[in-house]
Each structure stands twice: as structure tokens, then as C-alpha cells.
Amino acid sequence: MSYVSLSGLSAAQLDLNTTSNNIANANTFGFKESRAEFGDVYSSSLFTNAKTTPGGGVQANKVAQQFHEGSSVYTNNPMDLRISGTGFFAVSKDRLIPQQNELTRNGAFHLNKDNFMVTSNDEFLLGYQVNPDTGDVLSYEPQPMNIPAEFGKPKQTANIEVGVNLPANGELKDPALFDYNDPETYNRSTSSTIYDSMGQSYKLTTYYLKDQSQPNTWQTYYTVTDKEGEKPLNITGGDATTASGQVGHTMRFNNDGTLASLNNGQPIVSEPLGASANPLNLNGADVNQTLSFGLDSATQFAAPFELTKFDEDGATTGFLTKIDFDENGSVLGTYSNGENITLGRVALVRVSNEQGLDKKGGTQWDSTQFSGDKIWGESNKGSFGSINNGTLEQSNIDMTQELVDLISAQRNFQANSRALEVHNQLQQNILQIR
């Protein structure tokens, strides 16, 4: 029957198309190869003998995708993600309706103009909100992942903790002659940054000089530099005063180099930065801002001058400088103000039957009644795989095998064409019998 050969031609054509599609997507990230699956056709009746009845040809049962993993390709993009193991990324076409989403293994993401992580088709990657301090997931309701370009409100500096070693063999100086413009009048100086309530930065300079009139004693003075220049910063209730009237404080050390007394036991607090005799230009911020210094860890050992600690509690608004991901799928943002924040966690999804997924194109699938409902989770939890960044999953096709399959499908097509040709020739011969 010609139908048998025609069904063979149709099957061979489907096999060729499937193999060609696999080859065409060899460089498509996250692509899963397809396999054409066939079954024979058999029919019988009361008027046929089952022992002598041939098959009725072939039929296509399914074009099934194979979900085994592809190999990795390493990139220099930290937002390129790969799932090692089971699971899919979830992406949504509409940022406001994340409940309507599809699944993909293609982890080539980037930031759009609003700093949302999106695919090359501008679909939004879904993730979970986390506690920025602990990194724990706050809610497993998936939301589009946003990476803020700025982080943190400005905070004025109020408290400063300083650790310093002052050399025991330092050159003796006369405190009455101290002048921050003359390096010969002090031993050492250090500079650091402080902030006002609007996040404007200023340079705070600390000057140390070893008092020639008292053993194991150092005097410390401060200045702050704004856009108008360097200005002295006096200590309220300080116990060290220069000839010019600048007020600092005194550090006295024991013979073993440990701190004996500091500013006669009084707290070290600066005068209001914007209300001094030479007020700082605080950019419209709080003129009553003061600084509280802690120097309880200061030492005087026979060792070089060393600033061992400088911590201050002020901050300015930070701008995004780096994005990274950990093995749990948490996105880590680094900002210019020194903040390292956990901004969210990538959501992973799996289904009970991957073969039941509905192909949507663009290396995306959607769940159906045959695949089972979507099961939401996260990297490295339960049966979900782990997320690696800076790498992508390549197509899982084997090019060598695909070329072999292509030749096999071509031979099948040619053989069925020949069978059809022979059948037609026999019919012509019968019709020509007289």
C-alpha cells in the first residue's frame, strides 16, 4: 500500500525536522534537545489473517524534549547564572503580575533601565525578598528581582573609635608652638573622612605631638577641611591648649606603654562643627553636629607609629559598584559607601514531570496538568540544584550524534521514497496489462 510508504516519508521528514532544529540551536543557551518518537500502525478485521497482515505504516507519537544538563560556558558577567542540577528559573513578562510566569534554563540576565534583572527578551527574573541583615528569606511569594542603584540614607558622623600606637622614642615637641600648617611642630598626622547629615564628606585630620615638658605624654589636636579650607576643631572641655588658642586633649601613658589617663578622665567631644569660631560650611546640614572620640585603646610602645583602627558611624548614599551571587542564589550588592547588602534570592521552580511541560519557545516552558503544579524553592535546598554565577548552561545536544541521526533520517527518507516509487511502478504495470 502506498499509505505505508507515505507514512514512512512523513515520519522521516519529522525526524529530519527534529534533528535540524537541534542542530540549529546548538549555541542556544539552556536549549534542550528534542527526540522524535514513533509507533507502528496495525489494523485488522474479520476478513484479514493476523498471521499474514503486515503493519499499516508508522505514526508520530511525540516529539519529546530531553532535560539532561548541558555543559558549562564560563563568562565574565556576574549576572550569567547556571543551575547545576534540578530546577528552572522563573520569569514573568509583566512586572506587576509575577503570578503569570514561565520557566527557563537560560540564565543570561542583565539589568534594564529600572535596574530589574531581565532576560534578553526583557522578561523579569523572579526571586524572594530577604532580611538584609541575616540573609533569611522573608516571604516565598516570588517578585521581580530589583537591584537598587543607590543604597542607604545619609547619616552624620557622631562617634569615632581610634586605635593608635605612639612611638615611645618619638621626638619631643613644644605644645605651645603647635601649628597644623608647620610639620616641624608635631610628630605625626592622620586623615580620615566624616559626614554631615546630608552625606557630604569632610576631611578630619588628627595631629599628634610628644610633649617635651611631661614624660610619657602626648597632645592631640584636630582640624576639619571643608570647601573653604582647613579649620581648627576644638575639644569642649579639653585639657591641652596651644598658644594660638586651639584646644585639644592629653594622653598620658604608664611605663609599660598602656594608657594611664585621657583628657583628665573627661569625654572627648568636639565643639559644634557649624557653630565654632570658624564654622564649617556644612552644606545646610545640622550646625550642632558634634564628634565623640574614643581612644581607650591607644598605646605607647617602642614601635613605629601605627593607626590600628578607625571606625566612624557616619555614611553617605552608596552607588552600586558590583553585583555577585553566592551558592544559595542570594544576590549581593556592593556600594560605594562600603555597604555590602543581600538584596534578594533567586527563586527556583521544578515540576513532577518535565516531559509534561508546554513548550513556549525562547527556551521557555509552562506547567500543565500533565507536568504537575510548579513547586517553588531555592538553591541548595531539598531536591533543587545549586546556582553558579559567571557561567551559562549550553545546549545539551551532542553534535556528533545529531549528524549521525541526520544521515539516518536522510537514508530513511530515501528508502521510503524508493518504496513509494516501486509501488507506483507496479501499479502502472498492472494498469498496462491487456
UniProtKB/TrEMBL annotation:
<dbReference type="InterPro" id="IPR053967">
    <property type="entry name" value="LlgE_F_G-like_D1"/>
</dbReference>
<dbReference type="Pfam" id="PF00460">
    <property type="entry name" value="Flg_bb_rod"/>
</dbReference>
<keyword id="KW-0282">Flagellum</keyword>
<dbReference type="Pfam" id="PF07559">
    <property type="entry name" value="FlgE_D2"/>
</dbReference>
<feature type="domain" description="Flagellar hook protein FlgE D2">
    <location>
        <begin position="165"/>
        <end position="314"/>
    </location>
</feature>
<feature type="domain" description="Flagellar basal body rod protein N-terminal">
    <location>
        <begin position="3"/>
        <end position="32"/>
    </location>
</feature>
<keyword id="KW-0975">Bacterial flagellum</keyword>
<comment type="function">
    <text>A flexible structure which links the flagellar filament to the drive apparatus in the basal body.</text>
</comment>
<dbReference type="InterPro" id="IPR037058">
    <property type="entry name" value="Falgellar_hook_FlgE_sf"/>
</dbReference>
<dbReference type="InterPro" id="IPR010930">
    <property type="entry name" value="Flg_bb/hook_C_dom"/>
</dbReference>
<dbReference type="InterPro" id="IPR020013">
    <property type="entry name" value="Flagellar_FlgE/F/G"/>
</dbReference>
<keyword id="KW-0966">Cell projection</keyword>
<dbReference type="GO" id="GO:0005829">
    <property type="term" value="C:cytosol"/>
</dbReference>
<feature type="domain" description="Flagellar hook protein FlgE/F/G-like D1">
    <location>
        <begin position="83"/>
        <end position="149"/>
    </location>
</feature>
<feature type="domain" description="Flagellar basal-body/hook protein C-terminal">
    <location>
        <begin position="389"/>
        <end position="433"/>
    </location>
</feature>
<dbReference type="GO" id="GO:0071978">
    <property type="term" value="P:bacterial-type flagellum-dependent swarming motility"/>
</dbReference>
<dbReference type="InterPro" id="IPR001444">
    <property type="entry name" value="Flag_bb_rod_N"/>
</dbReference>
<dbReference type="Pfam" id="PF06429">
    <property type="entry name" value="Flg_bbr_C"/>
</dbReference>
<dbReference type="InterPro" id="IPR037925">
    <property type="entry name" value="FlgE/F/G-like"/>
</dbReference>
<keyword id="KW-0969">Cilium</keyword>
<dbReference type="GO" id="GO:0009425">
    <property type="term" value="C:bacterial-type flagellum basal body"/>
</dbReference>
<dbReference type="GO" id="GO:0009424">
    <property type="term" value="C:bacterial-type flagellum hook"/>
</dbReference>
<dbReference type="InterPro" id="IPR019776">
    <property type="entry name" value="Flagellar_basal_body_rod_CS"/>
</dbReference>
<comment type="similarity">
    <text>Belongs to the flagella basal body rod proteins family.</text>
</comment>
<dbReference type="InterPro" id="IPR011491">
    <property type="entry name" value="FlgE_D2"/>
</dbReference>
<protein>
    <recommendedName>
        <fullName>Flagellar hook protein FlgE</fullName>
    </recommendedName>
</protein>
<dbReference type="Pfam" id="PF22692">
    <property type="entry name" value="LlgE_F_G_D1"/>
</dbReference>
